[in-house]
Amino acid sequence: MPPGSLRRRLPGAVSGMEFTFFQQLAYSYPIRIIIGDAAVSAPATENWSGRLAFILASIGAAVGLGNIWKFPYTLGSSGGSAFVLIYVIAIFLIATPIMIAEMIIGRHARASAPTALKKLGEASGSRLKWSLLGYMGLFALFLVLSFYSVIAGWTGAYLVKVGFGGIAGLSADEVGGDFGAFLHSPAQIIFWHALFTAATVFIISRGIKVGLERVVKILMPALFVTLIALVIHSGITGDFDAAVSFLFTADLSKITWVVVLAAVGQAFFSVNVGIGGVLTYSAYLPKDVNLFRSAIIVALGDTLVALLAGLAIFPIVFANNLDPAEGPGLIFVTLSTAFAKMPAGQLIGSAFFAMILFAALTSSISMLETMTARLSEVRGMTRTTAAVSIGTGTFLLGLITVFSFSTWENTYPLGQFEVFAGKTPFDLIDYLVSNILMPLGGMLYALFAGWWLSKETVLSEIGLADGAVFKLWMILVRIVSPLAVALVFYFNLG
Fold first, then answer.
1. Strands (E), 56-146
2. Of the residues 223, 256, 447, 493, which has the maximum number of CB atoms within 10 A of its CB?
3. Can you tell me whether residue 10 is helix, strand or coil?
4. Comparing C-alpha atoms, which of 414, 405, 368, 365 is closest to residue 389?
5. What is the pLDDT of residue 29?
6. How far does CA 257 lie from the centroid of its chain?
7. Beta bridge partners of residue 39, listed in sequence order
């Protein structure tokens, strides 16, 4: 237990009202209360200052490399407007109901994911080990943060490179060669990986209000302002009409099962559900905040960022006759080629990579916060010790990703299996998280909230009356979302 904390054991036979009282006491003071064989504790003694801080933090957690890096290139290779149409539908009918489910669990239990799921599962009379779902999410987060900080480090390196004119005047082949040389320089990548990890650890060590809140209140407005400025610039200097047509002129003939699955998968991962991050943020949320409205605002903000990113990127792509279906290199190679030859490319490119770095940082702190909360809860560590311990672990695991793009780029550990053929160590980690752990986690969170939580518990948290909207949410979270995620899960494995 932390220095100065208290530990108290009470008789097992206490009323529900007494249990709630002691539970709230544990969340207000650094104490651990044992009631019979059950422990009442909390990961933190802090709360968000209000709904705005929570919404900014939640949007920041959702908005990351997936929105500004992955969304545009997935859209470009998946039918353009057809992809956007399915993506928006999936955000609100599949991903958002699951996000609300996590919020309900987090605020009601006010604990880390494993503890919250165990407690609420036992209260519902379930014999299933629901805490395993929480541990699976923590494991997924650890894996994600290990390679996420490496990719985010690339962004930091390119912010400096572009800002100091490192690509000015280079041809397309030269830009591509420069990026290839960068990937084959492990020392450079390790430096930026370490720098990004250290920044994430420092923010989390400062706490909820001094660390998380202060950062998201600065970075999220800065991200939106930068993104809007880039959209305006692209509208003036790029082929904006072609981009708008590509994004919003729905061509229903391009809707195929491949496009549907890609859009549903992107929507699901975009809002950061299925791994306990939303649950942990919600555990710090005051009772007077409406969860349903907050979730809708987060979903709208996340979707807006993704669409604005498309409007910032594709006018430049079309104006320079670049390929919108370029793939992952769309940002680091294709757009850098455009920045290298456009007027004020140095300034615009710097702003662009700064925006991606902001988005990456707001996501990485949500991942580390979720794991820090759990370690502080079960081990009694200080926030700083927990954050440093986890950050060190993710940094070391991230070295696998670093070397997967250089020394191990032709190493395929499970290449003897067809489904893993051609996958480097990094590809295997990414596949495990994106194709197995996150879809499975999202489906199980939906099922838990829809079928195991009592109606009274849900209504006490969600911020809706027992009417048509509530019944629609129940249908979505019980049936539609799990089936849709199971479909994506099945085809991803295939």
1. none
2. 223
3. strand
4. 368
5. 38
6. 25
7. 34
- pTM of this structure: 0.81
Percentage of the chain exceeding pLDDT 90: 33
Token pair for 347: 């300034």
pLDDT at 490 > cutoff 90: no
Task: Residue 285: name the closest of 453, 442, 109, 32 by CA.
Answer: 109
- For residue 386, give both structure tokens: 């927990």
For the chain, the straight-line distance linking the first and the last C-alpha, in angstroms and rounded, comes to 47
Residue 434, C-beta contacts closer than 8 angstroms, at least 6 positions apart: 265, 269, 492
Residue that is written with structure tokens 């850098």 in the block: 336
3-class state of residue 3 by DSSP: coil
Triad 61, 124, 115: Cα angle to 5° = 40
- The HSE-up count of residue 429 (CA atoms within 13 Å, CB side) is 21
Between CA 422 and CA 448 the distance in angstroms is: 36
The residue whose two tokens read 């695991």 is 397
- Which DSSP string do the residues of 292-353 spell out, in sequence order? HHHHHHHHHHHHHHHHHHHHHHHHHHHHTT--TT--THIIIIIIHHHHHHSTTHHHHHHHHH
Segment 377-402, tens digit of pLDDT: 888 788 899 999 999 999 999 999 99
Per DSSP, the three-state class of 41 is coil
Burial class (CB in 10 A: 0-12, 13-18, 19+), 397: middle
d(CA 268, CA 270): 6
At 453, the amino acid letter reads: L
Domains of the chain, CATH where assigned: 1-41 (no CATH), 49-493 (1.20.1740.10)
Q: Residue 225: CB partners within 8 Å, gap ≥ 6?
A: none
- Please state the rounded mean pLDDT for residues 94-102: 93
481-493 vs 438-447: helix axis angle to the nearest 10?
A: 160
Residue 83 amino acid letter: F
pLDDT tens column, 33-66: 444 444 444 444 467 766 777 777 777 777 777 7
